[in-house]
Design a protein that fits this description.
The chain is built from nine helices and nine strands. By secondary structure, the protein is α+β, with helices and mostly antiparallel strands.
Length: about 290
Amino acid sequence: MTQPTLIQRDAQPGHLDVALRLAIDGLPVLPLRVGKGPFGNCRNCANNACGGRPNMKTPGPCACLWPCHAWAAATTDPAIIASPAWKTAWRYAGAVGYHPGGAGLTVVDLDNSDAITWARTALPPTRTVATTRGEHWIYQGAMRSVNAVREGVDLKSTMSYARWLGPGTGALVALPDVVRALAVKEPTAVGPAPRVIAVSTMTSGGECRHRSPAYLERGIAMAEQRIADAASAVHATVYRTFLAVLSAHGRCGCLTEAHIGRLFTAAQAKGESPRHCTDAWTNARTALGM
């Protein structure tokens, strides 16, 4: 095996011992260089010349035995962790990293005080670990990893890695739906949002059922209440509510400016800006082909 070129630095005693203890507890680990990033691939694996690991959806060692392929190098095998090649990496390591998804965990990475304030009001309490600039909130359960789900908030789980900063405090709780919902992003707005719905005409005879005042009023009232009840993920809730209203009432000429205004007012009462409301409305219309 040809190892990457390394810059000499003082050894960090303890990283290997910590990694071995974590591996015993079932946490797939890998060495991280100074700066918190993974070690670069060796020459044999540079630019994935080796073809990568056979299964990049689960952690484990590369055939070259160096900790290549970032998060995919994470392992719980003590023989690999303490192997000569990995010992070299540990000597130059700046931290111990781990693959949350490989242990069935999700890390909500809160990068600043505003993000922490948001989490304390929007997310259920769970195990918390202090970081250099913020906190890691750790939940039991894996999901896909997504960066920048909101300002200062990343989700680290499958196909990602996090820095080990200690066991933290608090009880580990199950991954809630509100965190999973953070990974759902609406489409990018296309063009300016119209304030009047372009509707299709009825192609069959008879009165549109939605023209019943009670039917339409009940639908708008339910939508207003759904937005008002949102305890978190308000933007996603607004978008999905707009999508549901348009799906039910948007093609038969029932919705008026007054109805749209009620929905926008409900969203703005939850902190959404007028621009966010018009973007969400446009994206919902685009998704439905209107």
